[in-house]
Amino acid sequence: MKKYLITSREYYTDTPAVFRNILHEQFQEHMPHYALYRDKSNPNYDIQAAHFVEVCKQFEDIKSFIHQKVALAKELGADGVHLTSTQFDEITKAKDLGLEVIVSTHSLEDVLQVQKLGADAITYSPIFASPNKGEPKGIENLKNLLKKVDVKVFALGGIVTQEQIEQIAQTRAYGFASIRYFY
After folding, report:
1. Residue range 5-15: average pLDDT?
2. SS3 content of the chain, % helix, strand, coil (to 5)
3. What distance lies between CA 83 and its chain's CA centroid?
4. What CA–CA distance (Å, rounded) separates 102 from 34?
């Protein structure tokens, strides 16, 4: 099962040297397959994103993703872009630039739409209770969704324990994504 680490200013800070050190440590400890730079409030987002991609490139098996910014992902040489549930219209543009595309989804309708538009993978959330993310969907809902779609699905939302990861591993999910599990 693939692991998708998502950064958060709360755990990684916005100070470049500290950010790089924390990110490097977390990569060494957890060895994720995918990593996303996500910080919705950093005024120096582009600079920090460059640091993120540099650290990712130090690890041969980690694919780097930039949140929301297609052109920046391409410019920095990231492997891909992670689009929000309001950016479905950016999928084709990102694919045309040679980027892998992961899209945030929250319903079967969303998943079917982005699958049709050519997304490489999706996050589906929230699976478990997660702060400010609404009612959790649960494992049974995830299993039902997986029977109806072909796109790679990362379970996301409230994943903080090994027991939760084992529950996800019992589904056909491609992997899991988390912020807090990896910190």
Report:
1. 92
2. 45, 20, 35
3. 9
4. 10
Please name the residues in contact with 8: beta carbons below 8 A apart, sequence gap of 6 or more: 38, 39, 179, 183
Q: Encode pLDDT of 83-123 as tens digits.
A: 999 999 999 999 999 999 999 999 999 999 999 999 999 99
What domain count does the chain have?
1
DSSP for 159-183 reads --SHHHHHHHHTTT-SEEEESGGG-
**Segment 139-153 mean pLDDT:** 98
Q: Domain with 171 in it: what CATH number?
A: 3.20.20.70
In the chain, the amino acid numbered 76 is L
C-alpha to C-alpha distance for 123 and 73, rounded to whole angstroms: 18
- What's the rounded Cα separation, in Å, for the pair 65 and 53? 8
Q: How far is CA 139 from the centre of its chain?
A: 19
Domain span holding position 12: 2-182
What sign does the CA torsion over 17, 21, 26, 32 have?
A: positive
* Run of H or E including 92: helix 91-96
